[in-house]
C-alpha cells in the first residue's frame, strides 16, 4: 500500500471561535487502492473525558468514523467504510484525530468534515479528496456470438481522473494475431493505421468518447474476425486494458447460399456423369449421340457456373478479393478445357485454347501483382522497382507468346487445307475407272449418283480424262 504525504496547513476552520482544528494545506490526491491520511489535529491537549471526534462526508452526511467515550466505534460506521477507515488510536491523546483511509476507491472523492467536541469547546476542519488517481478499463464480461455479415460492438469503458481528451493513446488489437484494429491518440482517431482487413469496417462511437466510452463497432463481421480483442489505454503514466472475445460465428444468408450452390454443383456433376455413362453405349445412334453431347456440354458448364457464383458470394461476404478473382478465373476457364478434352465432342480451335491460357495467366498475374503492391508498402524504392519490372516482364512474355501463337495459327491453317486438297487429288488419281466412288454431296437423298444429261452417272472417275 502507498501512503500519501500531506503538508499541514496554517489555515484552520473554527467553530464558535473556541477550538482550533487544523487540516491539510490543500486538496489531496492519491492513487487508486492506496492508503490516504486525512489530517485533523489540535494544538492543545484535550481531556479524554467527554471527547468526541466525528468524521462525515459533507455531501451526504455519511458517517465515516466515530470516536466516543475514549474508544473508536466501528459499529457506527457506514458499511462502505468499515474495515477501511481507522483512527490512530494511540495518537488521539496527543490531539491527533487524523483518519487513515485504506484501499482508496474512485467514489471516495469528495469533501470530508472532521468535527471535534470537548467538554467546553468544539471545532472542525474540511478535507477534500480531489482526485483518486486511477485508470480502470472494463470490457465485455462474456464472449460475444454473432452471425457473419452482422455488426457487433466490443465494449471498452474507461474510468479515470484524467479527461479522455488528455489520454495519450487508446488502441484496439486482435491479440491472437497481433493485428492493429483501430488507433486513437491525442484526441484524434487514425483509421488509416488499421490493418487492411479492418479498414472501413471499424469505428469508435465519437459522441461517447468524452464519457470515456471507447467501445469498438465492427461492421460486416467475417469468419476471420473470430478471436480475442484487447482495448489498451495509456494515460498519465498509467496503463490498463480489457479484453473481449468474439466467439461463435453463425451462418449468414450468403453463407447458406454458398453452401446450396456447392451442393448443387456437386450433385449436378454426379447426375450428369451418370446420365452420360448410361447413354454412352448408344453412341452409334445419331439421336442418342446428340443427347450425350448435350449432356456433355451441361456437365462442362453447369457445375462450374454454380461454383463461380458460389465464389462470388463468398468473396462478397468475406472480402477475399484476391482469392475470389483467382478462383473465378479458374471456374470460367474449366468448362472450355473440359469441352476441349471431351472424346465425344467437337474440339475447339487451338486459338481459343491459347486465348484461354493467355486470359488465365493475365488474371493470375494481375492478382499476384496487386497483392504484392499491398505488401511492399514498406519496401524501399529499389525493391518496389524490381517487383514492378518482374511482373512487367511476365506480362510481356505472355503477350509475345500470344502473338506468336496467332502467327503460327495463320500459317498452319492454309498449310493444312493444302494438304487435305493434295490428299484428295491423290486418292482420286489412285481410284480405278468404273469403280464406284463414295457418294458425294451432289448425291440424291438416298445416296444414288445424280443423273446428268446424256444418261451417264456422275462419279469420281469422270473427273479424269
Automatic annotation (TrEMBL):
TM region positions = 252-275, 295-314, 385-404
Q: Region annotation Disordered: residue ranges?
A: 430-465
> Do the record's keywords include Transmembrane?
yes
GO:BP terms for this protein? cell surface receptor signaling pathway; cellular response to lipopolysaccharide; immune response; negative regulation of T cell proliferation; positive regulation of T cell proliferation; T cell costimulation
Q: Which residues form the Ig-like domain?
A: 8-130, 133-252
The superkingdom listed in its UniProt entry is: Eukaryota
Protein's UniProt name: Uncharacterized protein LOC109070239
**What is the scientific name of the source organism?**
Cyprinus carpio (Common carp)
Q: What is the lineage of its organism?
A: Eukaryota, Metazoa, Chordata, Craniata, Vertebrata
**Gene that codes for this?**
LOC109070239
Amino acid at each position: 500500500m502507498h501512503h500519501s504525504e500531506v503538508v499541514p496547513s496554517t489555515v484552520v476552520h473554527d467553530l464558535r471561535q473556541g477550538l482550533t482544528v487544523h487540516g491539510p494545506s490543500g486538496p489531496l490526491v492519491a492513487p487508486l487502492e492506496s492508503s490516504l491520511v486525512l489530517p485533523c489535529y489540535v494544538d492543545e491537549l484535550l481531556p479524554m473525558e467527554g471527547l468526541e471526534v466525528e468524521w462525515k462526508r459533507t455531501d451526504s452526511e455519511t458517517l465515516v468514523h466515530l470516536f466516543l467515550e475514549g474508544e473508536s466505534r466501528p459499529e457506527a460506521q457506514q458499511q462502505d467504510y468499515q474495515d477501511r477507515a481507522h483512527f490512530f488510536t494511540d495518537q488521539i491523546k496527543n490531539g491527533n484525530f487524523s483518519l487513515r483511509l485504506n484501499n482508496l476507491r474512485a467514489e471516495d472523492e469528495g469533501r470530508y468534515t472532521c468535527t471535534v467536541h470537548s467538554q467546553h469547546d468544539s471545532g472542525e476542519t474540511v478535507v477534500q479528496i480531489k482526485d483518486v488517481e486511477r485508470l480502470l478499463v472494463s470490457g465485455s464480461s462474456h464472449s460475444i456470438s454473432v452471425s457473419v455479415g452482422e455488426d457487433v460492438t466490443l465494449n471498452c469503458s474507461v474510468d479515470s481522473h484524467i479527461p479522455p481528451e488528455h489520454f495519450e493513446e487508446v488502441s484496439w488489437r486482435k491479440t491472437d494475431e497481433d493485428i492493429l484494429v483501430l488507433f486513437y491518440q491525442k484526441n484524434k482517431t487514425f483509421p488509416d493505421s488499421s490493418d487492411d482487413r479492418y479498414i472501413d469496417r471499424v469505428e469508435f462511437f465519437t459522441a461517447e468518447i468524452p464519457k470515456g466510452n471507447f467501445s469498438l463497432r465492427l461492421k460486416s463481421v467475417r469468419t476471420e474476425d473470430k478471436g480475442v480483442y484487447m482495448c489498451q489505454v495509456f494515460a498519465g503514466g498509467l496503463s490498463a486494458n480489457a479484453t473481449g472475445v468474439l466467439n461463435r460465428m453463425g451462418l449468414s444468408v450468403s453463407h447458406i447460399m454458398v453452401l446450396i450452390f456447392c451442393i448443387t454443383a456437386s450433385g449436378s456433376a454426379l447426375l450428369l456423369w451418370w446420365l452420360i455413362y448410361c447413354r454412352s453405349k448408344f453412341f452409334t445412334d445419331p439421336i442418342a449421340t446428340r443427347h450425350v453431347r448435350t449432356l456433355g456440354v451441361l456437365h462442362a458448364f453447369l457445375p462450374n457456373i454454380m461454383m463461380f457464383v458460389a465464389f462470388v458470394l463468398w468473396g462478397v461476404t468475406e472480402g477475399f478479393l484476391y482469392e475470389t478473382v483467382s478462383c473465378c478465373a479458374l471456374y470460367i476457364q474449366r468448362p472450355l478445357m473440359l469441352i476441349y478434352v471431351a472424346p465425344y465432342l467437337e474440339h475447339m480451335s487451338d486459338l481459343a485454347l491459347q486465348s484461354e491460357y493467355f486470359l488465365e495467366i493475365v488474371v493470375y498475374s494481375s492478382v499476384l501483382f496487386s497483392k504484392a503492391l499491398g505488401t511492399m508498402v514498406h519496401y524501399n524504392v529499389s525493391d518496389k522497382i524490381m517487383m514492378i519490372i518482374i511482373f512487367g516482364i511476365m506480362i510481356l512474355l505472355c503477350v509475345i507468346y500470344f502473338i506468336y501463337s496467332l502467327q503460327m495459327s495463320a500459317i498452319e491453317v492454309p498449310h493444312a487445307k493444302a494438304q487435305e486438297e493434295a490428299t484428295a487429288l491423290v486418292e482420286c488419281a489412285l481410284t480405278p475407272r468404273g469403280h464406284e466412288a463414295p457418294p458425294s454431296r451432289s448425291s440424291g437423298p438416298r445416296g444414288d449418283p445424280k443423273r446428268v444429261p446424256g444418261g451417264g452417272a456422275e462419279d469420281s472417275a469422270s473427273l479424269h480424262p
